[in-house]
Fold these 2 entries.
Entry 1:
Amino acid sequence: MGCCKAAALAAVLGVVAASGLAQNVGVRPSAGSIAQTQEAQAEPVHRWAVPNVEFLESGGVSAGGEVFATVEDYVQSDIFREHGMRCPVNPTEQDLLLADAMLRSPSDCSASFTSIEPEYDPANGAMLRIPVVVHVIQRTNGQGFIPESRVRSQIDILNEDFLAIPGTNGAPGAFAGIEFFLATEDPAGNPTTGITYSTNNTWYNDGGSYWNSLAWDPNRYMNIYTNSASGNLGYVPFLPQTNPSGIGLNSDRVVVLDSSFGRNAPIANYDLGRTATHEVGHYLGLYHTFNGGCGGGNCYTSGARVCDTNAESSPFFGCSGGRTTCGSPDPIDNYMDYSYDICMNKFTPEQVNRMRCTLFNYRQNLYQIAVTGPCSPADATTDGEANGEPDGAVTLSDFSFYLTLWSASDAAADITTTGVCAPVAGGGDGVDLSDFACYLAVWSDGCP
Ligand SMILES: [Zn+2]
């Protein structure tokens, strides 16, 4: 405990731990900032006309009146490329402006702009851990089955890419401080592998609103489904910013083509798990690198809404470099392009900033703050059951409870006005989870 504030917080937390109280005060500081005015949409926004795609019993694919013998033939076809089937998450500029016009109060990472802030820098906060459930959907003939080992490899890849783990394919990227793990408790609190298996031919072809049968509380779990993905490599139905009222609904999900899921997946060029990395990028608020083409003017309010990815006039397929479609090298190594898996290997620092901002502002109940090492008494294990959280997790509701005690016992401890984390909080903007993330980082730094 290096500093007085940490010591004071320790005292407060000690009170809670000693009392063994189980309470959830239910404070959600930023909930009011999320617009509730838009209808939830279950289908992704396509910019291009979409061919009617059906995965056939034979293992082939029917698309736009053509039949391809294999899924791999299909994903290498002109139809696949020309219709944006790599990933159809391409809202128009009008969509983005409309979404922001309906916001009651803006965030730093809205649909139409990004404001890079130090409070979203992973260097100033704790590791954010996201529980994942993977729903594997297969046909009655077995197509779509993914062994547990390959599901687990996909989670490993997400972590390699989001944590830029040295020695892995994701090493060149920016460290996001966002970690994924297969859920160890289901919504009822029972032990689980975090993987479900279903057999349904309609669901395999991405029909039948399977999410209403399969979803685990999308506010608290990232739900990934594998199936035909409607002929895309993957998609999310919306970005949190473009459809805030859809957040937490059963349809709030990530969908990935089964044959592009996990390490050494079956189809060439999309076999290293980067489809999921790309789609989770959308799920956390990122746009394609080619969004808005070359953009114009302010790179925080046009194009991909970050300034450290070069603009690009159109999606890039493949690996060979050298394109300069907007006067600078195209960012074909970025996870948010359409490049082959082996060639995409980075998120940029500003993309990371926007993703952490999205978690803090749009998905507050999704993540847990990692607590490890000798400071584990800060861990809110005592109310784990009350909140339905896995033991060992510190979540917003835990901190809300602590804050109540904290404020009652020592008004001067208000972290909006004093303390080492005050500059991060921005002053007067209330106490939110990012404040506590900062506190937790300070707390951990003080550990022996
Ligand atoms: Zn995409």
Note: The chain has a mean pLDDT of 78.
Entry 2:
Amino acid sequence: MLLKGARLATFDPPRVDEADLRVEGERIVERGRPLASRSGEDVLELEGAVVMPGLVNAHTHLYSALARGMPGPASAPRSFVEILQRVWWKLDRALDAESVRLSGLVGAIEAARSGTTMLIDHHSSPSFIRGSLGALQGALEEVGLRSALCYEVTDRNGREGRDLGIEENVTFARERATALARGLVGAHASFTLGDESLEMLARAVSDTGSSLHIHVAEDRADVDDCRARHGGGTIIERLDRFGLLASRALLAHCVHLSPEEIQVAHAKGCWIAHNPRSNMNNAVGYAPTAALRRAALGTDGMDGDMLAEARAACLKMPTSWSSTTGRPPSCTATTSPAISSSVSTAATCARSWWRGDGRCATGAWPGWTRRRSSRAPATPPATCGRGWPRSSRGGEAR
Ligand SMILES: [Zn+2]
């Protein structure tokens, strides 16, 4: 296939060129301008479009797509835990096989239209656990996206729900990996997991050779619970006691970790998924972005638009830095290692499981997407919870 006439955009270092690309099988094999088409070759005319490496959403909940238009709870949540109890834990309990599949389709299409070609999803559907990851996988592969999927293990649905969640993670990681999908071991958060459950999760990680994907210190309540019920220590110390801070573990949020705790997590080889819009929307505080190194951006179910997420992170960054370092930077793409390289670090994070190197260059794996450069869509409002309602985007991708 020959891609002709597009602007090629790469992020690390930032660069825009005009060139044609030839793709054969899974590789970009030639780059130049102009490249002559060969007999019988598919030619895609891309005048006016931007071709860029596919973006990676490092932490999302596809089932959140179904919350759009959903009426709010009868009484307004007064805390983060009440948001979970009155909104998300009601929605996830209502999910069945068909709604899980449809949420995957909606999320995948939206992601593709925003230039996102890989999703790391954290799924929960307590009334439909066994087979739920396969249902999501089917939807994502129908759209053609790559994914790393896991089921969110928790004690809140009793022992049976917990055990089924672990089984779903293990079965999927062992048996359902394909060219487009991988399995991780999902866990909700320290405050809904007892010691026995953490032990079982550690065993599942070891048995599958995979890694943990868990919410960490998203809200102060998670930190306080750990101190009160688990010997006065921190969540990082608790996870480490069970050997769960292994290489490639993905820790979502980390809003209430100290820079020292983040350093420990990084030293253990963990990735941190930073979710700026969700954190602001839930009013849980904001991650100490100045301390983040192995960090990648996630939308936490707000939508699939990583450029909107990066923009929000960049705008929030000055206040976040000034509160942690006393050194307020301007909001430019070069001042925060965590944010300026969010796209490329997400690609690096994704390479923990996938090939591809985030370049539009010869030899690269073309996880690229196409966006119309002439139609810059307005950012629709995100109003509540992980974000609803949302309107459709104007971008075009393939
Ligand atoms: Zn989340």
Note: Confidence is low (pLDDT under 50) at residues 332-344, 353-358, 370-398.
